[in-house]
Amino acid sequence: MPTPTKSAPFFVRKAKRGKIQVFRLRNSQMIDLRSDTVTKPTPEMRAAMAAAEVGDDVYGEDPTVNRLQERAAEVFEKEAALFVASGTMGNQIAVKVHTRPGDEVIIEARTHIYNYELGMAGILSGVTFRTIRSEAASGHLTWKEIAAACRSGDDHSAPTGLICLENTHNFGGGSVMNAEQCRDICENAAKLGVSVHIDGARIFNAAVAMDTGVAELTRYADSVQLCLSKGLGAPVGSVLVGSRDFINEAHLWRKRLGGGMRQAGIIAAAGLLALEDSPERLHEDHAKAKELAFGLASLPGIAIDPKSVMTNIVIFDVAETGKSPAQICDGLKRHGVLASGFDTSIRMVTHRDIGQNDVGVAVNMMKQVLV
Ligand code: TLP
């Protein structure tokens, strides 16, 4: 096989007279398993965006944004909803509205709000985090674990102002918190007067995996942030849902943060399709992730229990391969496959732009990179 130039992704084709040709891959030809955030809007979404009815959303006059918010509130069976620019914005507004400066927020140690939102909760809300490393590999906390960390606040300690959950748990391998566990946490927290926010960036994946509705999984939580721009495939945006009072306050914080997006109906139109139509195809992404996990588990040095893969995220340990995650990801990239490495692990995420054959190709490329 010809050697590719330095770091250029390539593929090889046998031309007519048996001549070998090496092609560089364009980014769009890569098998991109880095995240489901890389999904491109569908032709239907692009058409809906082009035709969207719009108005000035800061005046509350964008009919498409209003429709998206009404539909999200209905689907989650909450009083109200707010369209925001991103998952991070939705989560941070929720932390701000639920807490007072000096409060402590209880959160699992591998969560997005704690690890990947650039310390914004300290900057905007003046809160500190009390992190708990969940005993379960799934990353989901139990009420018992949370209760041991709750504090009412006194001369020596900050009070617990909020509990944040994440469903699915991204770095818990896309694991799902079931409705019962969530209800237990929310009901007990309510007894202490503490609110619960769910980072539901992939809550539809959780619902599909449990064969239930998102309202079932989030009924007792005070607020939920759901991403339209991940597996649901919209180009931009998240929605925050909760009580009318919570959303009224969130609305002010969105504006303060520069999130008043004027004719945002252009992007909300794609978001509406994502909300209505995309959940029904998420089981395909889950099946691809399962197949990927089984394929990877058969390779030497890769540690993963494929049976634990419930949704579209596959995280596996590569310590025993003798190669670092960075070396493996570089090797994969040269073979046209993108993945992300962290600690001693690699994460691969399936989504609508991953074709059925891509899974087999990715496993094969991994085999080649490991030798
Ligand atoms: N997650 C991204 C990266 O930032 C890690 C990804 O590729 O998975 N909550 C959760 C659970 C998330 O996974 C993410 C994005 C967010 C919030 C933030 O969403 P955005 O990117 O819209 O701000």
Can you walk through the features of this model?
This protein is an alpha/beta fold. The chain has 2 domains: 10-40 and 281-370, Aspartate Aminotransferase, domain 1, CATH 3.90.1150.10; 43-279, Aspartate Aminotransferase, domain 2 (3-Layer(aba) Sandwich). It is 39% helix and 18% strand. It has helices spanning 43-51, 63-76, 87-98, 112-115, 120-125, 143-147, 179-191, 203-210, 214-218, 244-256, 265-277, 282-297, 325-334, 356-370, and strands at residues 10-14, 20-24, 31-32, 80-84, 104-108, 128-132, 160-166, 195-200, 223-227, 238-242, 313-317, 337-338, 340-342, 345-349. The strands form 4 sheets. Strands 4-10-9-8-7-5-6 form a 7-stranded mixed β-sheet, with helices on both faces. Bound molecules: ligand TLP.
